[in-house]
Structure formats: C-alpha cells, structure tokens
Design a protein that fits this description.
An 8-stranded mixed sheet has the order 2-3-5-4-7-8-9-10, with helices on both faces. A two-stranded parallel ribbon has the order 1-6. The longest helix has 17 residues, at about 165-180. The chain contains 9 helices and 10 strands. The protein has about 260 residues and is an alpha/beta fold. The chain has helices spanning about 1-5, 65-70, 100-110, 125-130, 150-165, 165-180, 215-225, 240-245, 245-260; strands spanning about 10, 25-30, 35-40, 50, 75-80, 85, 120-125, 140-145, 200-205, 230-235.
C-alpha cells in the first residue's frame, strides 16, 4: 500500500494543446531536475496566479481555473509537481518535497514578473505543498482547497472509506512504513502546524460532503490561520474539483478574493 501511495504519477502532459495560448516552461530546480509547466500571460498590473494540482494528478487538472483567471486578466502558471506529470521524481512525499517545486515556481514568477503581485491556488497535495514550504512563501494571497489539517487524519479518513474500522487498526503500521519509506517523520507533513506562520490573506475552501477532509477539519485549519482569512464551505460538495462542481460560485468567489489583493 505504501508503494502504491508514494509511486510516481508520470504523464506525458505536454503532447496536449490547451484551447488558449500557453508557453511551455521548464524551470531549473537543482541538478537534473526541472519543474515543467505552462505559462499564459495576462494584463500588466492584474497580478499572477500559480496553480498547483492535487495528488496523482498534473497541470491538466487546473486548466479550467487557468482559463477563467486568464479571461479576467491574470497571468497564470500551471506546474507539475515532482513525480507528477512531466516533472521528474521518484516518490510522492505528500507536500514536503513538492514544496521545493512550489518555491522554485514562485521564484521564477518573481524574476519574470518583478512588478506584479502573486497568489497561489493549491488543491489537496498542491495546497499542502504551499503550506509546507520552509521558509514560508512570500505571496500576496493564497487559496487552499480540500486541505487536511494533519497527515494522520488524512490517512485515517481514507483507510476508513476503503476498509471501514479495520483501517484504523492498520493506520499505525502504514504511518510507520511511510515514515521509513520517505525517510522523514510524518509529523513534518501537518499543514495545521505551519499555517499560523503565514501572514498573507488566505481563502480556505471545503465541501460539506467531503469525507476525505471533513468540514470540521477545515474549520480547525481556518481557526489556526491568521487574519485576514476567509472560509467557504461549499454546500453538497465532496472531495473533488470545486471549480467543476460549482463553476459560477467558484469563479465569483475566487475573482472577488484575488482582485482585492492582486490588482494594482
């Protein structure tokens, strides 16, 4: 199970052509490692948004968000995290090493858009990678979708969904094995321990029917975050693409939030 959870999710994303103009980018992130992505340019002064996908996915998941944000004048960078899409990597590490790719992408945007304000939107793994960056990222706003407070809770919720109460019994064994496999303490993977280190505006999004990350867990994260902050609990939504589930509501909410902190 540990091998399945951490195994790479490589996909040849670049062979697909989006239905709006994008530039392919490869951002150096150390020896023999490049972060692959697409960049679409918006209106000067409207800001830039980094989009970071969920676990076992890639930048294609974020195309709908990129399209609507670009239509509203934002420049947008979509990336593949390490061991996902076209960005190389041996294992998925639940945000800790993926955070290096996010830091690399933010540095790239700072260099290429020096006068623009920058935000990031992350979904599950992408949200964790944003939060777990050390030192904390210097951004002007962030949106975190379907983010778990602790790695242990994320594992337990998923084990219960697939194995019932038996999953609770094997959780300690799985956590120990994952710690050994990734050569890190699973306590390093807890977004709730890092979120209070962030000083930028935060919008947290979760669904009322999400059984992977419950509403009460999202509320704990929200309570731990500093002001200014917002919490949007989407009625009827589960643990899936919020933009697909409630396109109009999502676009209105995100547009209102980002315009307050990015437009100059």
């Amino acid at each position: 199970m540990g091998e399945i959870l951490t195994g790479p999710a490589s996909t040849a994303v670049g062979i697909l052509i989006p239905d709006f103009p994008v530039e392919s980018v490869k951002i150096p992130a150390g020896k023999d490692h490049e972060v692959h992505g697409w960049l679409t340019r918006g209106i000067r002064g409207n800001g830039v948004v980094l989009l970071v996908h969920s676990i076992r996915s890639n930048r294609l998941e974020m195309l709908g968000r990129a399209r609507f944000l670009n239509d509203r004048g934002y420049s947008v960078l979509l990336i593949d995290l390490q061991a996902h899409g076209e960005t190389p990597g041996e294992r998925i590490t639940f945000g800790i090493r993926e955070s290096q790719d996010v830091k690399t992408a933010v540095a790239y945007l700072r260099n290429n858009f020096p006068h623009e304000r920058i935000a990031a939107i992350g979904v599950t793994l992408g949200a964790a990678a944003i939060i777990l960056a050390d030192p904390p990222l210097k951004l002007d706003a962030i949106v975190l979708e379907s983010l778990h407070p602790t790695f242990e809770e994320a594992v337990e919720n998923r084990l219960k969904l697939h194995l019932g109460e038996f999953g609770v019994w094997i959780k300690p064994l799985l956590l120990s094995y994952l710690s050994l496999l990734l050569d890190l303490s699973t306590n390093e993977l807890n977004p709730i321990d890092r979120i209070s280190n962030l000083s930028m505006p935060i919008l947290l999004i979760s669904g009322t029917h999400d059984k992977h990350t419950t509403q009460s867990e999202a509320e704990r994260l929200f309570n731990a975050a500093l002001q200014p902050k917002e919490l949007w609990i989407v009625p009827g939504a589960g643990h899936y693409n919020m933009h697909t589930y409630d396109r109009r509501g999502y676009e209105d909410r995100i547009s209102s939030f980002l315009s307050r902190y990015l437009w100059q």
